[in-house]
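Hi V.,

Quick status before I head out on leave. The structure for the redesign project is tokenized and pasted below; the design run finished overnight.
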């Protein structure tokens, strides 16, 4: 794939980076990235991946914009309240970058459609808000040999990790959380609150890790979990060990 003159201009700041260059930009333009959730994490991730020139962005979210989303979900404005998130996200991507093919899926991911929604993606970025979805996504991608970038937030903390659990010695997301489940009385953002800018940290960081995984710049992120504490502020990185008894990848 040759880059057009307008693409050389649009992506010039990527191309001059020796770690990305023209070849890395061509990889981004040829890639399909699926994003699970267009909420606080998905919103900035969608914008930065579209700006980066990801060839196809598939956004999976069955929700509609609510007024209390607007404190942190920067894709949406007041006029978008009650509109489908996937539809509004597609409009935003179209305004931002005509190079990007947008594939909006206003569906709730579950056991019956996980393959149809995720297959064909070169990488999946998961910003969903429950363990059931996260583990379903992880298990499917481990079996399909597709990289997963998982991001989560809570109050003043963000966590981002990259997982390739099918590889020898590399953990999957289930190795990290085990057989976690969503208790009926589990805490939610509406009960505990979340700093809106923290979702921006998580979503932008997840987009960075997606671009890293697709282009190969820097050190291999697989199996590392980056934890940002917004109260301190401080960041630390921990390495997740592969669980030989894990039913997702063991």
């Amino acid at each position: 794939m040759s880059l057009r003159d307008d693409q050389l201009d649009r992506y010039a700041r990527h191309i001059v980076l020796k770690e990305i260059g023209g070849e890395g930009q061509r990889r981004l333009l040829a890639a399909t990235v699926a994003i699970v959730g267009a909420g606080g994490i998905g919103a900035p991730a969608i914008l930065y991946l579209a700006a980066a020139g990801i060839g196809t962005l598939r956004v999976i979210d069955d929700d509609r914009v609510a007024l209390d989303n607007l404190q942190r979900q920067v894709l949406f404005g007041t006029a978008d309240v009650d509109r489908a998130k996937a539809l509004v996200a597609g409009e935003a991507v179209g305004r931002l970058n005509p190079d990007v093919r947008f594939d909006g899926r206003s569906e709730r991911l579950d056991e019956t459609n996980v393959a149809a929604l995720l297959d064909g993606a070169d990488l999946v970025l998961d910003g969903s808000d429950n363990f059931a979805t996260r583990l379903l996504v992880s298990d499917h991608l481990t079996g399909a040999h597709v990289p997963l970038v998982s991001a989560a937030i809570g109050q003043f903390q963000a966590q981002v990790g990259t997982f390739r659990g099918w590889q020898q010695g590399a953990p999957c997301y289930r190795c990290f959380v085990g057989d976690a489940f969503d208790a009926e009385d589990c805490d939610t953002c509406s009960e505990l609150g979340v700093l809106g800018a923290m979702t921006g940290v998580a979503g932008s960081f997840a987009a960075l890790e997606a671009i890293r995984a697709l282009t190969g710049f820097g050190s291999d992120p697989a199996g590392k979990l980056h934890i940002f504490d917004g109260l301190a502020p401080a960041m630390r990185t921990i390495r997740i060990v592969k669980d030989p008894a894990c039913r997702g990848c063991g």
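Above is the designed sequence. The beta strands are 32-36, 56-60, 101-105, 123-126, 148-154, 157-163, 224-229, 234-239.

G. will cover questions while I'm gone.

Best,
W.
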